[in-house]
Amino acid sequence: MRPTGTATAEGLPVLTGPLDQGLVLQSRGGLPLLTVAPRVAGVVGLIGTPLPSTDILGSVATGELLHSFTSTCDRLASSFPRFPDGMNLLTAPPELEPPNLALVGWAMLIYVVLVGPVNWFFLRRIDRMLAVFLTVPALAGGFAALTFLGGWMVRGDDLLLLEVGQLALRSGQAHARWQGATALYSPRMAEYTLTFPLNLSLIEERAGSPSQWPSFSLVLGTRQELRHFQMWVWSMRRFRGQRAVLLRGAITLEPEDGSMQIRNASELDLHDCVVVFRGHTSAPFDVPAGSRIRQAWPPPRPPAPYPQAGQDSRYRYEREILLQEATSFQASHPSTPMLMGWIQTIASGVECSDPRARQMALSLVLVQGEEVP
Predict the structure, then answer these.
(1) What CA–CA distance (Å, rounded) separates 201 from 240?
(2) d(CA 110, CA 97)
(3) What is the mean pLDDT of each run of 10 residues along the chain (373 residues)?
(4) For the whole prediction, is pTM greater than 0.70?
(5) What is Dmax (Cα atoms) for the chain?
(6) At what angle do helices 132-153 and 116-125 cross, to 10 degrees?
(7) Are 92 and 317 in contact (CB under 8 A)?
(8) Rounded Cα–Cα distance for residues 265 and 284 (Å)
């Protein structure tokens, strides 16, 4: 495995296990010789055809093989789904945001009402009034800084497992594909273990120096593990990934005469759903797991060009970003009905070893119906 950002393939750890979603770079005799796939904090290469012992000991063929591997790592990593840096859920959760500047204003008010007069009487008592030009700025700045730091320190001590993504599937099918971003925020310096399904390929964004990269192990037949995952105080580490998801049942979207029928046989509770079809957008509605919903079609109100993102300001920006991509697809396929809904569960299957980790997730579920002539 070569960590992203390194220029050579020296000192690479050897991994065992299947290589999902690999890309064949070189072949020999019709068989894959070098296959690579992204993994956590780097890229894994699989030599599928044994080389002669002279090649293993170091030859031109070995050098060419490693050159193909290292030169492809960054190109392969760039093919992963990318989300804007402004995704608030993964860049600025409440625990990472600075305290409200109103705290500084209150500190200044307390200074003016209490600290300022005391300072003035003290200087007058010792007959050092000219020192006011030094004590006033020092007290004001120090008092405001202490208040700001105090507000920063009490932001909370929750360990957060965050996720934003999209879960897409076709109507009448239970096979879906999730792609998105996952992050872990830690308010303290500690080591954690992340576990995730075998078919989830992760790659870390903004990885640190090679000395800080975590060790990696593969648990065959069950789940992958990312061990010795080092986190600093008030730090966050983010990953991008994608995986195939098998739901317990299908989600079906069927146009009927004067109505649109939605059947949800999966385990997902869909919230704030809308149906978009031929320029019309339905009013938001919920589709609980195991339910059947029938919506009048076309909707009895003026059509909206894009579905709204809901009233939850905490996730409003994430909703807008995810909806833009979905609605642009529907605009290019006006004869294809589409159901859009939201789930607030970890769809990637990532889990943290710390039982205190609090999950905050938001994924857009896209159900593409059959094209209607």
Answers:
(1) 8
(2) 24
(3) 43 54 64 63 58 48 57 47 48 56 70 76 80 78 74 70 87 88 85 85 61 53 77 81 88 88 94 84 89 87 49 51 65 81 90 88 86 77
(4) no
(5) 96
(6) 150
(7) no
(8) 20
